[in-house]
Design brief:
Strand content: over 45%
Number of helices: 1
Strand order of the largest sheet: 4-3-6-7
Largest sheet: 4 strands, antiparallel
Shape: elongated
């Protein structure tokens, strides 16, 4: 039996609208009986979300396959793997899937225990500033960056409510983070 990673020429995921499209290429010379597509949000516990029945692959050429996850889990990482017949599971790939609402800002988890993640809608990767304040309005943390997400570690902060501001160009967004 061939090593499963050598069976796949490519395995990738892209976000399109509110769906995640999975594409893979099965290397020529390998065939399997059915493909099961699986998804997880923790890369450990997978559920079947689709299947391609029948013979897959070709005896003489690479074969392209595509599957669209029409209901990815929003505002988190979606992990995917393939079960290629009796060959077993493919490597795991992941894709972030965020649906921004009117604030163009997501916070999760909130309330948080050890950390929380702030995600902003920033397709142009523009510089933005994050400020964290105590409930008394005292600035305790500030940073600037171009990435879409920022992880805030609790690092000795007392349990309670903290307020933040995000400044992107001329737009100011505010919110609160609760550490338990």
């Amino acid at each position: 039996m061939a090593q499963l990673d050598s069976l796949l020429v490519d395995f990738s995921a892209i976000v399109s609208n509110e769906e995640i499209q999975l594409d893979w290429i099965l290397k020529g010379g390998y065939q399997c009986n059915g493909t099961i597509i699986q998804r997880s949000t923790d890369a450990i516990n997978f559920e079947n979300i689709g299947d391609i029945v029948g013979l897959c692959g070709s005896a003489d050429k690479d074969e392209f396959y595509s599957f669209t996850d029409v209901k990815p889990v929003k505002n988190t990482q979606n992990y995917y793997r393939l079960q290629l017949g009796s060959y077993g599971h493919s490597r795991i790939i992941n894709k972030s899937f965020f649906l921004f609402e009117e604030k163009s800002l997501l916070i999760f988890p909130n309330p948080a225990v050890t950390y929380t993640t702030i995600v902003i809608e920033n397709p142009g990767r523009k510089m933005w500033q994050f400020n964290l304040y105590t409930s008394m309005g005292i600035l305790i943390y500030t940073t600037e960056q171009r990435e879409q997400s920022l992880q805030i570690e609790r690092n000795g902060l007392a349990a309670g409510t903290y307020y933040f501001s995000v400044l992107l160009e001329d737009q100011l967004k505010t919110g609160k983070i609760i550490f338990q």
